[in-house]
Design goal:
single chain, alpha/beta, Rossmann fold, seven-stranded parallel β-sheet, 7 strands, globular
Length: 247
Amino acid sequence: MGMLDGKTAMVTGAARGIGRSIAQELARCGADLAIADLDAAWLEETAASIKDAGRRVVCLSMDVGSSEDVTSAVGEAVKELGGLDIMVNNAGITKDGLLMRMSDADWDAVLNVNLRGAFLCTRAVARPMMKKKSGVIINIASIIGLIGNAGQCNYSASKAGVIALTKSSAKELASRNIRVNAIAPGFIQSKMTDALSDEVRASMLDAIPMKRFGTPEDVAQVVAFLASDASAYMTGQVLTVSGGMVM
């Protein structure tokens, strides 16, 4: 028996990385999945692993910055799965650059995906969850939204906004038995960290008390906890998954 048996979930940005691991972990725990990304073809590997776990899966092409796309995709997920119990707002991008050199386009692009996308998905899924008077929304923020980072004004602002969105929507939706929490990952192992020089990697690891990068699975397991009844009395919280980098 899985702790999410009988539950349905939707994960954005599920084609690779943390999003893929989240979808796989929720399936392993017993949930049926709607997985979304900008190009549905990118989702094939994620979908195959979910099917291998014996769960149903629906692949959705969705631009999280488009209100029309989000409304349509959430509606299709609800229809195909018979409802949505869990929403994971994971889709995100970076366009790094120093403040004085950052273009309007790079600022707008990051805020559009990371913050507007989380808002649109939360608003869209709140309606069906309110009707059934239950639900869980989990936003993937970042420790950069808590501490900032040079060269990432747009990203840090977007993730700080996601944290504020989490807290405000948690207060609005709590009376309908809908919980809203956020996870703020630290440095997570990825193709980007693999490509760093030994010197840069050593500098990053020096800031982490546990002396290792996190894995996508480290984040996914916390998502599963927040999605389950094990966290039934938690809402409006931000859990850092950073190896002690942020305490």
